[in-house]
Amino acid sequence: MSDLLADEKGQDTLPIYGNPGHLARRFHQIAVSIFLNETQAFGITPVQFAALTVVSAYPGVDQRSLARMIAFDRSTIGDVVIRLEKKGLLQRRNGKDKRIKCLFISGEGSAMLEGLAGPIGSFERILLEPLAEGEQKIFMYLLHKLVNQNNELSRVPLEVG
Amino acid sequence: MSDLLADEKGQDTLPIYGNPGHLARRFHQIAVSIFLNETQAFGITPVQFAALTVVSAYPGVDQRSLARMIAFDRSTIGDVVIRLEKKGLLQRRNGKDKRIKCLFISGEGSAMLEGLAGPIGSFERILLEPLAEGEQKIFMYLLHKLVNQNNELSRVPLEVG
DNA sequence: CGGATATCGACAGTATGCTCACCAAATTTA
DNA sequence: TAAATTTGGTGAGCATACTGTCGATATCCG
User: Fold this and answer.
1) CATH code of domain A2-149
2) What's this model's pTM, rounded to 2 decimal places?
3) Cα angle, residue A151 at apex, residues A147 and A155 outer, rounded to 5°
């Protein structure tokens, strides 16, 4: 195993390359890259996709709750939904509580989510492809465990329910 | 295992929560958060730390090579080194090749790297703490494998040597 | 009822992270 | 050597990500 930890390209020359933080960034960077490749016909970003998915599942959700559900800070999600509204993928309406902006997916948005099912599937497959099937299961299990148990250490913990 | 995949907080209500891309983003987000907590006395970011580490190991390296070594695009690294220069952690000098800016770490920069050794150790420990020791090894092995073999799919592949 | 408190959306400010395009300088090649 | 190509740094532009603060509105509590 240790010969695989020491990578074939010599990327362990620097201590940085073995740093889990560096690998976390690289993994995320690669994930975003594959996502954009597979979904380029739709002109959407990973964050926008996540937001749209939640709004679709919870019609009328407010921005703050949306942010909490996908673990984003309020400012970022504010900008994201404005961009989604500009693209016509969702609408923001004032709720009874005048502080709140309720979010609703548009027909166009729903259609895009349907069309994205295939590309998103490809994205997930390609991202994990370097691992054998058994390894993928183990990796996802460990990744889940890390993310869930470290949730509170995040600047913006994910809050469900 | 499947009961751990379905998380105790009900985070698998949405398909998003099981998406490896979402988990990649969360993992990275958490890593950055822990990094900033542990190193806050130094006022440095993960990217700045990575850049400084490489410049320290390769004195006189140019911006483009630095970017390639830590898998960043040249624009981002340009801004990063300018901020590092403003903080007095490194210097940019013109090389014989007039296109090139050669990077050198300053005494202050070296001192900071030394001081950071402990906090970086804590950071790595905390990030992986939710996993048992054996699990950590397996996780890092699989993460390495994913990142290395998907390297070319990244927008900015890491290039060594 | 009315003041303290909490919450929501918005804005300013900082730092990534990427693409495209540009200029200047170096290298390759005809 | 001169022309074509490549390369390094920079700037514009867009989209995250986060912190802090603010005003408006709701709610809680005496």
Assistant:
1) 1.10.10.10
2) 0.91
3) 120
